[in-house]
């Protein structure tokens, strides 16, 4: 009895104690609080305010019936009024300032307040393109971007050649503009021309490279000069596939070389007996970036419309009225035949019946002329088991040597007897810039006629699942009957067999846009990757499909032969589209990167990478992308201008001024987004591949170096992948 009484008293005491602590309803009310944020301009970073910038601060009150605050300021700058219900305007000082604190105190209870710390930073600038060559008498456009991106896009430009004002440069000294134009009319050597853009908020910023990234320009008699390797693929006027690979030497206007050609007539080798490169009219702002290239062999294709990037690489489309196609020419490097090294490769072409065929594999060269222990997969018209490769992966053996003509050759004895010529293109032995070579079969006979690319494999990697851990962009081209099938994928590998991301696909006019994979309903994700047990670099990736369809369309198995971490050559294993392409490591600095439209600013050379069908109309273009941060483009758009060259119906070269815009905050952190052209009208999606470094609010030097794009217009059954590079 006594125990029960004491227990009841204990419960009563506990209840009374709880009631005293929590109030009448037993719940402790939350304390009032005030938080401050910058609400205009949108997405403004309080740690990167530019001098004299005006921002709107908004206070949010929680857990209180109060409706106003008192504003106060500690540090540089000014507040507009000091007291306002919930908003205040802050104007930054004319120079840098740190530790600026804005405080909002609750009216009626001065013990409750919130703060926002503001840092005012110098306006730094970067000029794009940053390093390039300008041909004598030619014109190059430059654009500038400030950091913070919201700073005014008005710059005072300077151009000097060996310390003396450039002979022909616009805008004039003292004038302000967002872009500039330089015409090469100076005489000096090396990176002797320097072009800088100083913000009008800090006109002395370019006295040091700390606050101003200066473009370094070298001068040349002609931009196409030196030794080049090139590749080209397309179709003749009868719709028959054609491929070319070769090399040439351009010596101040004189071009000589050699090329291999695959056509409906078979294989042939031709001497490039002469040729020329002619820029477009020197008065055109694109004259340094485009022109016509002629490689005289006596057969077509022999005339090309070309565009040049800042490194001098030549992107080309056929312009002789004899067919359609595209390709690239790059400065040649050197190949050490006595080094033990392995090359990953991807080849595409047609079999003897004209069906699409794709190869992917590895070619180990042992330094003594032998190829031992190679691997290869083949998809011939949707069949992975075929006359070339009976049971994939099949073994590759053979030899390699240099022929009398100076061309390198692969002489394979397995999986079947076949030979290839290859031409050394660019790159080195380093993993960041691997040696690249262009190959073409030179005795197709009963074997398919194929051509493509070989890339030096990074030998420092153990090619297990852990070797693939990060972001990549994959570009795939195939054929859906007589039409084209293309796709771009931004994927993330987790180092443990998991693959996720998004893709866009245009399959003969059927569009899948921004498809996220796996979908939320795929709780056991079918999107995986797996390394071969031999860890040589062969992987199986599950890609594409349609996780959002009902019923769900399963992903397609692709074989990938790695040239390095998150990069290599892709080949679908079973579909009749025979989708082939590359996976490229997305060159961002890390998961914390911030990509914005401002990093797109610059001049790009762009062209179709290849055609999955004869109906594709190849495109080459100079894209001038300029950043805008005012009006409807706040917090930032990119304006598109330039010139597009397109071959229509095999023989009509259309030249069209470009116009359009990329909407605000296109990228955020992913590097994927839409681009709409108003002239000529078209809708594309772009996938950023590489940047010049880690992109962040504190890194004004970062710029997007190259990206891929595909047409997403449903009216176009013959889309293509376009590659753009600064």
Outline the structure in words.
The protein has 726 residues and is an all-beta fold. It has one helix and 53 strands. The radius of gyration is 30 Å and the shape is globular. The protein starts with a helix and ends with a strand.
Rg (C-alpha, Å): 30 Å
Poorly predicted tracts of residues: 1-23
Oligomer: single chain
What is the overall silhouette?
globular
Q: Determine the fraction of residues in helical runs and give it as a percent range.
A: under 10%
Total count of domains:
5
| Structural class by helix and strand composition | mainly beta
Residue-averaged pLDDT: 87
Topology, element by element:
Blueprint lengths: L1 H21 L10 E8 L13 E9 L6 E6 L3 E2 L3 E2 L2 E5 L5 E10 L6 E8 L3 E5 L2 E5 L3 E9 L7 E7 L2 E2 L3 E2 L5 E2 L1 E5 L9 E7 L12 E2 L1 E6 L5 E11 L4 E11 L2 E10 L2 E7 L1 E6 L10 E7 L6 E6 L5 E5 L4 E9 L9 E10 L5 E10 L4 E11 L13 E9 L5 E7 L3 E7 L11 E6 L7 E8 L12 E12 L2 E12 L4 E9 L2 E8 L11 E3 L6 E6 L12 E9 L2 E6 L7 E6 L16 E7 L10 E10 L8 E12 L3 E11 L9 E8 L1 E11 L12 E8 L9 E5 L1
List keywords for this structure.
726 residues; mainly beta; globular; 53% strand; 9-stranded antiparallel sheet; Immunoglobulin-like; 5 domains; single chain
How would you sum up this structure in a few lines?
By secondary structure, this protein is mainly beta. The chain is built from one helix and 53 strands.
């Amino acid at each position: 009895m006594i125990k029960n009484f004491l227990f009841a008293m204990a419960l009563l005491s506990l209840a009374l104690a709880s009631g005293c602590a929590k109030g009448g309803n037993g719940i402790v009310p939350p304390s009032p609080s005030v938080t401050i944020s910058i609400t205009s301009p949108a997405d403004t970073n309080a740690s990167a305010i530019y001098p004299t910038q005006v921002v709107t601060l908004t206070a949010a009150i929680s857990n209180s019936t109060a409706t106003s605050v008192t504003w106060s300021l500690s540090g540089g700058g000014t507040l507009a009024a000091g007291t306002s219900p919930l908003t205040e305007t802050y104007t930054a000082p004319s120079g840098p300032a740190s530790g600026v604190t804005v405080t909002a105190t609750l009216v009626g209870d001065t013990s409750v307040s919130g703060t926002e710390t503001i840092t005012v930073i110098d306006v730094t600038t970067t000029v794009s393109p940053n390093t390039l060559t300008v041909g004598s008498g030619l014109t190059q456009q430059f654009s500038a971007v400030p950091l913070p991106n919201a700073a005014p896009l008005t710059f005072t430009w300077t151009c000097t050649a060996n310390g003396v004002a450039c002979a022909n440069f616009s805008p004039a000294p003292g004038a302000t503009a967002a872009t500039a134009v330089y015409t090469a009319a100076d005489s000096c050597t090396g990176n002797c021309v320097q072009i800088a853009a100083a913000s009008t908020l800090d006109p002395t910023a370019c006295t040091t490279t700390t606050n101003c990234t200066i473009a370094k320009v070298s001068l040349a008699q002609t931009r196409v000069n030196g030794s080049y390797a090139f590749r080209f693929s397309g179709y003749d006027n009868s719709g028959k596939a054609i491929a070319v690979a070769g090399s040439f030497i351009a010596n101040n206007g004189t071009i000589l070389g050699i090329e291999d050609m695959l056509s409906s007539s078979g294989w042939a080798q031709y001497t490039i007996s002469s040729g020329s490169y002619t820029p477009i009219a020197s008065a055109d702002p694109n004259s340094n970036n485009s022109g016509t290239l002629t490689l005289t062999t006596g057969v077509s294709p022999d005339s090309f419309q070309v565009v040049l990037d800042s490194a001098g690489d030549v992107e080309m489309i056929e312009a002789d009225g004899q067919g359609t196609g595209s390709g690239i020419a790059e400065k040649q490097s050197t190949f050490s035949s006595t080094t033990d090294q392995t090359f990953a490769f991807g080849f595409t072409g047609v079999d003897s019946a004209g069906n699409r065929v794709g190869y992917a594999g590895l070619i180990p060269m042992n330094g003594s002329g032998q190829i031992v222990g190679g691997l290869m997969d083949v998809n011939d018209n949707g069949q992975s088991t075929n006359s070339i490769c009976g049971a994939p992966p099949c073994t590759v053996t053979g030899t390699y040597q240099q022929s009398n003509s100076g061309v390198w050759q692969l002489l394979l004895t397995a999986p079947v007897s076949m030979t290839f010529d290859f031409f050394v293109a660019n790159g080195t032995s380093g993993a960041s810039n691997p040696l690249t070579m262009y190959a073409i079969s030179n005795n197709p006979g009963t074997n398919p006629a194929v051509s493509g690319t070989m890339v030096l494999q990074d030998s420092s990697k153990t090619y297990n699942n852990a070797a693939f851990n990060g972001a990549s962009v994959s570009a795939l081209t195939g054929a859906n009957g007589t039409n084209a099938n293309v796709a771009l994928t931004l994927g993330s590998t987790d180092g443990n067999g998991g693959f996720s991301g998004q893709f866009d696909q245009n399959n003969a006019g059927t569009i899948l846009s921004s498809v996220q994979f796996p979908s939320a309903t795929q709780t056991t994700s079918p999107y995986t990757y797996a390394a071969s047990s031999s860890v040589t670099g062969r992987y199986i990736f599950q890609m594409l499909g349609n996780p959002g369809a009902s019923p769900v369309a399963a992903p397609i198995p692709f074989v990938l032969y790695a040239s390095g971490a998150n990069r290599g050559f892709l080949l679908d294993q079973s579909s009749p589209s025979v989708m082939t392409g590359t996976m490229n490591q997305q060159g961002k600095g890390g998961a914390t990167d911030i990509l914005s439209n401002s990093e797109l600013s610059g001049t790009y050379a762009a062209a179709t990478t290849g055609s999955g069908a004869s109906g594709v109309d190849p495109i080459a273009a100079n894209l001038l992308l300029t950043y805008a941060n005012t009006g409807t483009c706040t917090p930032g758009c990119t304006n598109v201008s330039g010139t597009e060259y397109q071959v229509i119906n095999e023989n009509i070269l259309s030249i069209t001024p470009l116009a359009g815009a990329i909407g605000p905050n296109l990228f955020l952190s992913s590097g994927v987004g839409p681009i709409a052209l108003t002239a000529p009208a078209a809708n594309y999606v772009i996938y950023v591949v590489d940047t010049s470094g880690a992109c962040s609010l504190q890194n004004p030097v970062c710029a997007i170096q190259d990206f891929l794009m595909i047409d997403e217009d449903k009216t176009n059954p013959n889309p293509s992948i376009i590659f753009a590079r600064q």
